[in-house]
Design goal:
By secondary structure, the protein is of the alpha+beta class. The protein contains nine helices and 18 strands. It has a 14-stranded antiparallel beta barrel.
Length: about 450
């Protein structure tokens, strides 16, 4: 070991002399070999000095960058390691080189508690993992970081082709059972086809907690945007794409606590909902929930909420919403999963047409084995909505009732992931029947979205 250090020191002296006087030229391979030997012998500071001499000669020397990066990590110069990792990522020519650069950069960021940035670099590492073992290790490291990161961030985005982007009627006429009234619907009240794009950003930060409880401050921003087809523009020539867009913005405070074998939550949420670029209403919501196991294969979740809504302008009605819902999940020994959901909701409002009682049920099935490259999930459901005081010029006899059937087939492709995001195809269909024909509608859509795989 001493002989190696003497040799390395001699090489370094000659290299510096050559650099300063532009005289004796040394082989770059000799310099790299000596620097690597010194690093292996446990002198990272000297190894980094030698690597930086090589980088002075060639700033894109990939071997020198790797030696300097490893030496920076060993000497706990984490800011320097981040800078070197970025450079190696940029000039790396092979998957192993770039994978090492991304993982080393993530390590340096994690050691200085910059966990979210470290997670982004691990997603980069996943894009160039040289084999399945390296990818599995990267996923495991990502989950480990997520468990200690006080921040949690998720982003989902999708693009769907739909034959009814606005929830419009199938018919041109509005017919009300029990009333001798027939109206002609405007173009924007009829079913319009087009593209629907969504983006859903959720984030939260742990404020305090122990192994038994946790308090988090979070938020959400949901965007839905529509692009009408040429056929839709012919039906509703006065409509704009923005007329059918919506935005939801929320901020919340959540307290979760372990209760027995389950977890209880209480959440206070504030936010606003915009439609057609105008504030529809703002709200405050209080929700409680509890989830846990009922056995080795059976799990449950129950929740309840109350919500107060204020109109976006002085002319709108004030509203008060409340609801309860429950879900059961059953995991078979084969790996297949079955779930059932039931939700009941009520909306009280100063506006008679908004008063609502609603019940929705849904069943979902996820097979144990994929079909080719796709993991499948099948869902079917039904809902019933009653508007007891609905009025169109005259009160609708018995109020308005909507009965909706819906279903979807989802196919995700985990082996096609990039940076930890895998594509998901969802074919959805729904059909609504109503005693007010304006609300009789159907929709068929095909959505492409991307979901995190770790």
């Amino acid at each position: 070991m001493i002989a190696r250090r003497v040799l390395a020191a001699g090489v370094l002296i000659l290299a510096l002399a050559a650099q300063a006087q532009a005289q004796a030229r040394l082989s770059a391979d000799q310099m790299r070999g000596a620097a690597f030997a010194v690093l292996q012998d446990g002198d990272p500071a000297l190894a980094r000095t030698m690597a930086e001499a090589l980088l002075h000669r060639d700033p894109e020397d990939r071997v020198a960058l790797r030696i300097a990066l490893e030496a920076a990590l060993a000497t706990e110069d984490f800011d320097g390691a981040v800078a070197l990792g970025r450079r190696l990522w940029q000039v790396g020519e092979t998957r192993p080189e770039r994978h090492f650069a991304a993982r080393a950069t993530a390590l340096a960021l994690a050691r200085t508690e910059r966990h979210t940035r470290a997670q982004l670099w691990l997603r980069r590492a996943a894009t160039v993992a040289p084999d399945d073992a390296a990818l599995a290790q990267t996923r495991s490291d990502f989950r480990g970081l997520r468990s200690v990161n006080p921040w949690q961030v998720s982003l989902q985005f999708s693009l769907a082709q739909s034959d009814n982007v606005n929830g419009g009627s199938e018919d041109i006429f509005n017919i009300i059972d029990g009333l001798p009234l027939v109206g002609v619907l405007s173009g924007d009240a009829r079913a319009l086809s087009g593209l629907v794009g969504t983006a859903d950003l959720r984030f939260s930060r742990r404020l305090a907690g122990t192994a038994d409880w946790q308090a988090r401050l979070g938020g959400r921003l949901y965007l839905r945007r529509v692009r009408l087809s040429s056929e839709a523009e012919d039906i509703a020539p006065d409509s704009r794409n923005a007329d059918f867009g919506s935005t939801l913005a929320e901020i919340d405070l959540t307290h979760a606590r372990r209760l027995g074998e389950g977890i209880g939550e209480a959440q206070l949420r504030f936010g606003g909902s915009w439609f057609a670029e105008e504030l529809d209403y703002s709200f405050a919501r209080l929700a409680i929930a509890h989830r846990g196991p009922l056995g080795p294969e059976l799990g449950y979740r129950v929740s309840a909420h109350v919500e107060r809504r204020w109109p976006g302008d002085d002319s709108g009605p004030e509203e008060f919403a409340r609801g309860i819902d429950g879900a059961l999940t059953y995991a078979l020994a084969s790996g297949a999963r079955f779930s059932a959901n039931l939700a009941l909701a009520e909306l009280a409002s100063d506006g008679p047409n908004a008063r609502l009682r609603n019940a929705t049920g849904q069943l979902s099935w996820q097979p144990a084995e994929p079909l080719g490259p796709a993991d499948l999930r099948l869902s079917v459901g039904a809902s019933y909505a009653d508007y007891p005081d609905y009025t169109i010029i005259l009160p609708v006899p018995g109020g308005r009732q909507d009965r909706r059937l819906f279903g979807s087939l989802e196919a995700s492709f985990p082996d096609m992931q990039y940076a930890g995001f895998a594509p998901v195809l969802t074919l959805s269909a729904q059909r609504t029947e109503s005693n007010v024909s304006r609300f009789e509608r159907s929709e068929l859509s095909l959505r492409v979205s991307f979901r995190s795989t770790f």
